[in-house]
Structures are given as structure tokens and as C-alpha cells.
């Protein structure tokens, strides 16, 4: 798995600590603060997957204000607006795009029972993200 460079990676570097003062959240339809924490290229599923990981504190099951439906709409938006642009900028053709939200920073692949996490997978098709429900 590789961490990739580019405009999203610069956002991720500036957001290395989601609680850090001065880190601007990315605009999403719900208005909740969403901060990019990591961009990964993952070939472990047997094909290239582009993974964009975000910290979204308002999805917390303990006092969060963003609903599951709002988070899903935000993830759709991020796929459409950020992931597809990133693919084009870097001439990538991933089989899937995975957008993930966690209410706190969680290392990739780690389990944290206290964390609230959402994951959505999409199939890129031209200028569209097609949701791939499992």
C-alpha cells in the first residue's frame, strides 16, 4: 500500500492531527467538520483501490450531531468532488474508491471498538461515482 502525493496529500499533511488548531475542514453538504487524514493506494484487494480516510468527529455515537444518512451523503459528495479529481490529476484508474469516516484518528487496519466508523465503496465510471453497496 502506498500513500500518494498531490493536492489531497497536502491536505492530509496539514491535517495530520485532526484536533490541531488552524486545520480547515473540507466542505460537505451536512456542514459537519470533515478533515482528510490519509490517502492510500491499496493493491491488496487484488486490484487498485483508492482510499480516502477522513476524521469526522460529529459522527460519534456519543454526542455527535451528524446522522448516518448525512454522513453517507457527505461521503458521496467527497467521492464525486475529491476522489474523481484526484484520479484525473494522477492518471489513476482504480477499480474502487473507498471513502471512510471515523470520529477520531484510527490507524488503517486497526480495530478501535470505541470509534464510530463508516465506510463506503464506489466504482468510478467516467465523471461519476457509483455506490457499491455490500
Automatic annotation (TrEMBL):
Which Pfam family would be a valid example here? DUF6497
Sorted alphabetically, the keyword list is: Signal
Kindly give the InterPro entries that the UniProt entry links to this protein: DUF6497 (IPR045467)
- Provide the leader sequence positions: 1-18
**Official protein name in the record:** Acetolactate synthase
Amino acid at each position: 500500500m502506498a500513500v500518494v502525493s498531490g493536492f489531497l496529500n497536502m491536505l492530509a499533511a496539514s491535517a495530520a492531527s485532526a484536533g490541531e488548531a488552524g486545520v480547515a475542514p473540507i466542505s460537505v453538504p451536512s456542514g459537519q467538520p470533515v478533515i482528510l487524514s490519509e490517502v492510500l493506494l491499496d493493491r491488496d484487494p487484488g486490484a487498485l483501490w483508492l482510499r480516502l480516510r477522513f476524521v469526522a468527529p460529529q459522527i460519534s455515537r456519543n454526542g455527535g450531531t451528524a446522522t448516518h444518512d448525512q454522513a453517507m451523503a457527505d461521503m458521496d459528495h467527497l467521492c464525486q468532488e475529491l476522489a474523481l479529481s484526484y484520479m484525473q490529476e494522477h492518471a489513476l484508474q482504480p477499480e474502487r474508491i473507498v471513502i471512510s469516516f471515523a470520529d477520531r484518528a484510527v490507524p488503517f487496519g486497526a480495530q478501535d471498538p470505541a470509534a464510530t466508523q463508516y465506510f463506503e465503496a464506489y466504482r468510478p465510471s467516467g465523471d461519476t461515482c457509483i455506490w457499491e453497496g455490500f
